[in-house]
3-deoxy-7-phosphoheptulonate synthase
Amino acid sequence: MIIVLKPECTNDQLEQFIERLTSHYDLQVNTWVGTQRTVLGLIGDTSSVDMDYIAAQDLVESVKRVQEPYKKANRKFHPDNTVITLPGGQKIGDGSLTLMAGPCSVEGEEQICGIAERVKTAGAKFLRGGAFKPRTSPYSFQGMKAEGLALLSEAKKKTGLPIVTEIMRVSHLELFEDVDIIQVGARNMQNFELLKELGKIKKPILLKRGLSSTIEELLMSAEYIMAGGNEQVILCERGIRTFEPYTRNTLDISAVPVLKKLSHLPVVVDPSHAGGIAWLVEPLAMAAVAAGADGLIIEVHNDPPHALSDGAQSLTPDQFDRISSRLFEVGKVFGKTR
C-alpha cells in the first residue's frame, strides 16, 4: 500500500502518523521524502488496513494498494531514480553513462593491470574481472579465486578504478572486503540464501538476470537483497536463453525501458554475454544506450584468442577505445553525460 502525504505535512505529524500505523498494524513503513511529496510505503499484510480511514486523515493526499509482489524495488514506492554512489565519488544512475570494463577472468598481474590502465584511459569508471568463475563444464578454467581478488586489488591501487567482480557463495564474503561492487551472476540470481546475506552488507550489488528468468523474477531477487536492508542494487540485463542459436543469448533490449518504468533501480546491460561474439558488442551496446541503460559492462582482453575464458566475445583494448568514444557520442544524443 502507498500513502502520499500532503505537502504541508510537518515532521511531527509524519512521526505521529507512522506511530499510529505501526501500533495498529503489523507492518513495516518505508518513508520516501521527495522534492514535492512524502510517500509512505506499507510493507506486509495490508489486507486489514482500512483505506477509507487512512484517506480520511487530514495529512493524507491519496492512498492506493500495490498489486506487484516487489515493494522496495517498485518505482511506486520510490518515484525518483536511485543513484548509487561509491566512496570514491563514482555514481551510477545519476544521468551519466557508466562503463565497466575488463577481462572475463583475471589471468595474471601484468594482464589485469595493463587492461585496467587501458580501459581507464578509454573512459571506463569501473574495472570488471572474474576471480571466481562459474563454468558450464567442470573441466574449464574456474578462475584464480583469492589470488585473482588480490590481483584485482593491485590493479585498483595502480589505477584507482573501483572493482566489480562476481561472488559464488556466502562463505567467500570475507574475501570481498576490497571489492567495490559485488556481482551476482545469472546462475545465482535465485540463490536466495546468498541474496539474503548480501542484504546485510553495505556494498552495491550488481544483480544479473537469470538465463531464463522473467523481469518480475529479477525484481523479486532484488527485493530479497533490499528486504535485508541493502538498497544499493543495480539491475543487469545480460541476455536470456531463447530458441535462437546464432548468438550466445538473446539480448532483451525491451527489458531496459520496462525495468526503468517498473523500478527506480539503475539498469546496466552486458552486451558481451548477450551476443557472445566480439563484433556484436558495439551494436548491442549502442542499442542499450538508446533504450535508456545507465551503464554497460563490457569484456576487454589484451589477447582474446588466448583468453582462458570467453575470448570470442572479448574486445581488444584498441577496439574498446574506439567503441567507448562512439558510445559516449550516442549517450549525448539521449541526454547521458560522460
